[in-house]
Amino acid sequence: MPPKQIKNRDQYLRASFLYQAAHLMGGVDGGGAGGECGEASALPLSRFYVSQMRAVARKSVIRLDPEIKRTMCKRCDTVLTAGVTCAAVVENLSHRRLAHADVLVHKCMACGLAKRYPVGRNREYVPHSGRAVVTAAGQAHGKQNQTHKSQTRTQKQEKQKQTHDQTERRDKDVQEQQQEQPTIQQPQRLAKR
Asked: Can you give the pTM of this predicted structure?
């Protein structure tokens, strides 16, 4: 059976290409074309690619993933990179400094727009744009996060396997009970002659 065809596949491919090009020109990779072209000439090109990607998504009615939206400034279309094009700060505006009231604030250095993400009690939360930056601390955190995801994935798989095994056992027991029970045959009626 062939795989399902994706609607608007060309638009998805174009949006993906523009997003990757914007990140490359924005200097997220730390080298490559972003470093060679220079910051002054690469950032406007990066912004242009982001605006084009948004236009393609809007025209073809494609919903962008929230992880992708969080890496772009809504106001000036800058690719947000922690420490490079945006500042990340944890704020707590509650009167008593409650732990569950912590908010991660990403402030665009180009236009000053601030995005707020509730962090709360989860101190290990790292937004998508923070994961893109490769540092010694980030690598260690990324590995922990990755192992946590793989552990939850294996736990889900084990649970699914257990429920599958239970249903198989129950079906097998029902079949055995049906085989053990004698079948009662209806007496045949003799036709009147």
From this structure: 0.55
